[in-house]
Structures are given as structure tokens and as C-alpha cells.
Design a protein that fits this description.
This protein is α/β, with parallel strands linked by helices and 230 residues long. Helices cover 43% and strands 18% of the residues. The protein contains 11 helices and 8 strands. It has an 8-stranded parallel beta barrel with strand order 1-2-3-4-5-6-7-8, surrounded by 7 helices. Strand 7, helix 9 and strand 8 form a beta-alpha-beta unit. Helix 1 packs parallel to helix 3, helix 2 crosses helix 3 and helix 4 runs parallel beside helix 5. It starts with a strand and ends with a helix. The relative contact order is 0.15. It binds the ligand O=c1ccn([C@@H]2O[C@H](COP(=O)(O)O)[C@@H](O)[C@H]2O)c(=O)[nH]1. Ligand LLZGTKA7 binds next to strand 8. It holds the Pfam family OMPdecase. Keywords: Decarboxylase, Lyase, Pyrimidine biosynthesis. This is Orotidine 5'-phosphate decarboxylase. Homodimer. InterPro entries: Aldolase_TIM, OMPdecase, OMPdecase_AS, OMPdecase_bac, OMPdeCOase_dom, RibuloseP-bd_barrel.
């Protein structure tokens, strides 16, 4: 059976746990995501171990954000790990994104528009007052213009962003919560089926699966629900 278009976020500070989760959920999903905590603690070994545990596609979610030269150097430093996706913040600007694209041409440089944890009040606090969608669309257009081949956005914004950037750009949505699941620190959320129906290409799901009593069963249930059989 084709794995579901889901990236499971391996958010743990223990590499053995990340490898165990990979073995449990890997057969059900297309992608495994290594985030900042795991990467900062273990470095390239985190990617190697997750791959050895069965991940075919690795999403390296480092959310780089610095001056172009620094981000270019950082992207070059991880390009040899051959992640399928590498994230940068779109708000780093055109030259920063171009530097990442040039440094890691085989990797999909993936620009994060507006973090799914941020609500309207947070956006006002950081000087982005107005609907999150406005900022997300603006940043999406900028990132694609700079060469990003994938975008991270809220599932609530995915349809409008698709209209903004057209086909051919992969839209990736965290902030996904199965019905009844805790929202945790996420704000702009939707259910897995809503995200897919809105046009997301890949859903990022972490805690609802990794904190389940049986992560393998939770991943299987999520995958089945996306096939319409759950
Ligand atoms: O806007 C963003 C960008 C990235 N993330 C990452 O996705 C996962 C979500 O995990 P959950 O446990 O399902 O909330 C996490 O690794 C974030 O760093 C995001 O949530 N929002």
C-alpha cells in the first residue's frame, strides 16, 4: 500500500526513541521529520540513524534564518546528508532563500511562511498585524520567486496559497490535529482530512502520533483516515 502523504515529526531528545518511532510509523507514512532538538543534539548521526531505521525520505526541519552567507553555508553543510526537504524561514528574504537554494540544489528548499503556532495576537505583537493569511501569501510569493520548491503553511491557508503560487510548488501543512486531539501549542489548525481536501501535498503530524500509547496504530489510523477508510 502506498504510504500516506504524512511526515511524522520525530520531536524527542533521544535518538533511540526517534529510531524506534521511525520503525513503528515508517511503514504507514511517506516521510520522517528530524527537527531542531534532535539535530542539535546528535547532528548528522540523527539523519543517518533515522534513515537506517527505515525512513526513505528525510525532512530536515532546521528553519534556517540568518544573513544569506550564513544560511548558504549552513545549507551547504547539510546538503551532503541528502535530505528531501530543508526548511528556511521565508521572512529571511529573497537573497537568503536564494543562497540556500544555490547551496543545496538536490534538496527541496522549503520556506516556512507563518508558524502555525502564531495567532492573530502574536502576529500583531511582532508587527505583522492583519490576518495571518495576508502575511502567509506575501511570504509564499516571495519564497517561490526566490526558488523555494516547497512551502510550509497552516492548513487553513493552503487553498489561498495554492491560488497564489500555482501548481508545482509542494504545500506542506503542520498544525494538523485529528478530531478530538489536543491542540497543544498549535493555533491555526485543521483536521487531516480538511488539510488534504484544501490541497495540502504533505501533512506534518507529531504529538498526536508520537505521544499515542501505540504510535504504530495511531499512524496506521491516520493513514487509513486519509484514504477514506478510517
Ligand atoms: O509552522 C510550523 C512549522 C513547523 N512546525 C513543526 O511541525 C511539527 C508539528 O508537531 P505537532 O506535534 O504535530 O504539533 C513540529 O515539529 C514543529 O516544529 C510547526 O508545527 N509549525
Amino acid at each position: 500500500m502506498t504510504p500516506a502523504p504524512v511526515a511524522i515529526a520525530l520531536d524527542t531528545d533521544d535518538l533511540a526513541v526517534a529510531a524506534r518511532w521511525t520503525g513503528q510509523v515508517g511503514p504507514h507514512v511517506s516521510t520522517l521529520k528530524v527537527g531542531l532538538g534532535l539535530y542539535l543534539r546528535y547532528g548528522p548521526e540523527a539523519v543517518a540513524r533515522v534513515r537506517a531505521a527505515g525512513a526513505e525520505r528525510v525532512f530536515l526541519d532546521l528553519k534556517l534564518h540568518d544573513i544569506p552567507a550564513t544560511v548558504g553555508a549552513a545549507a551547504a553543510a547539510v546538503a551532503g546528508l541528502a535530505p528531501h526537504y530543508l526548511t528556511v524561514h521565508a521572512s529571511g528574504g529573497t537573497d537568503m532563500i536564494k543562497a540556500a537554494v544555490a547551496a543545496a540544489p538536490e534538496t527541496k528548499i522549503t520556506a516556512v511562511t507563518v508558524l502555525t503556532s502564531l495567532g492573530e495576537g502574536d502576529l500583531a505583537d511582532i508587527g505583522l498585524a492583519g490576518p495571518a493569511l495576508d502575511a502567509a501569501r506575501r511570504l509564499a510569493a516571495l519564497a517561490v520567486g526566490a526558488g523555494a520548491r516547497a512551502l510550509v503553511c497552516s492548513p487553513r491557508e493552503v487553498a489561498a496559497i495554492r491560488a497564489e503560487v500555482g501548481p508545482g510548488v509542494e504545500l506542506i501543512t503542520p498544525g494538523v490535529r485529528p478530531p478530538g486531539a489536543a491542540g497543544d501549542d498549535q493555533t491555526r489548525v485543521a483536521s487531516p482530512r480538511e488539510a488534504l481536501a484544501a490541497g495540502a501535498d504533505l501533512l506534518v503530524v507529531g504529538r498526536p502520533v508520537t505521544r499515542a500509547a501505540d504510535p504504530a496504530a495511531a499512524a496506521a489510523e491516520l493513514a487509513a483516515s486519509l484514504r477514506g477508510t478510517g
